[in-house]
Amino acid sequence: SQAGGSPRPLRIIALANQKGGVGKTTTAINLGTALAAIGEHVLIVDLDPQGNASTGLGIDRRQRRLSTYDVLSGEAALADAVQVTAVPRLSLIPSTMDLLGLEMAMASAADRAQRLRRALEPLDRGEAQEAQPSTEDRRFTYVLIDCPPSLNLLTLNALAAAHAVLVPLQCEFFALEGLSQLLRTVEQVKGALNPRLAIQGVVLTMFDPRNNLSAQVVADVREFMGDKVYETMIPRNVRVSEAPSHGKPVLLYDLKCAGSQAYLRLASEIIQREGRLPAAA
Ligand code: ADP
Ligand code: MG
């Protein structure tokens, strides 16, 4: 905790991009781990029915007692659904396939896009804490929401609940096309549901320095989005793709690899840009 005992502000970030396979889940897991490694208290909310963030953090299906489905449907309180992970200071609310049916189940509810926002309100008041035993201040300082690859009701819930959207963008030819559509959706949500919503930034993923197309995409995205694009790019790195099958973030699987080091740099860059003081880890 900071000098004077004032609580660190909570930052809720939705990782969104309606394209699949661009690095949303990988970034949620590994940015979350990197933030935790430098002293932040992080909650990952798995909002994808595929549950890849849950699996990648080593929480298999049998361990998913309460899930984001239970929280969004109002059957469980947020605090009860928070689970510890093997990473100190990193907690998770897992997802299950039940989420697939949530859209139908909530179709006629007037507050259907505001469920996650309501559920996260106790965090703003510092009420829900990490389940991990610890002597320090255990209030969450970051919530990372891992969105499904679609602009559906689940993603709307994430955008309605977040302070900002972090967009993982894969360095490939059609990267910018999807980005315009996502930015339009963000503007709509901002107008209708969540006036505070901002663009946190764009993180370029799976960058390959030997590929000319990668370099061209980077140049185009930087021209289009300006300084919203992080300096840090996540390289394509085989260790990053191997780690989930071991149920580990890459930082626990191979701390020295280029992917781990890039996620650590991204975490520092995000904290610096927010003008936060580094947490006393
Ligand atoms: P999304 O959540 O957007 O669908 P994922 O994070 O699941 O995307 O990533 C898609 C695939 O790409 C996964 O198999 C993942 O392991 C792999 N991947 C993601 N980032 C990297 C990287 N930097 N280097 C190598 N493989 C990566
Ligand atoms: Mg995913």
The CATH architecture category equals 3-Layer(aba) Sandwich
- Spatially, the strands of the biggest sheet line up as 3-4-2-5-1-6-7
Q: What's the multimeric state?
A: single chain
The level-1 CATH class: Alpha Beta
Residue share in β-strands: 5-15%
Ligand names: adenosine-5'-diphosphate, magnesium ion
| CATH fold-level assignment | Rossmann fold
Principal-axes geometry comes out as globular
Residue runs with pLDDT of under 50 for 5 or more positions: none
Determine the number of helices (DSSP H or I, runs of at least 4 residues).
12
Run of helices and strands? EHEHHHEEHHEHEHEHHHH
Describe the biggest sheet? 7 strands, mixed
Function: Involved in chromosome partition. Localize to both poles of the predivisional cell following completion of DNA replication.
Domain AAA: 11-199
Organism: Methylobacterium frigidaeris
Protein name: Chromosome partitioning protein ParA
Key descriptive features of the protein:
281 residues; alpha/beta; Rossmann fold; seven-stranded mixed β-sheet; 12 helices; binds adenosine-5'-diphosphate; binds magnesium ion
How would you describe what is shown here?
- The protein is of the alpha/beta class.
- It has one domain: Rossmann fold, CATH 3.40.50.
- The protein is 39% helix and 13% strand.
- The protein contains twelve helices and seven strands.
- The protein has a seven-stranded mixed sheet with strand order 3-4-2-5-1-6-7, sandwiched between helices.
- The radius of gyration is 18 Å and the shape is globular.
- The site of magnesium ion has 4 residues, from helix 1.
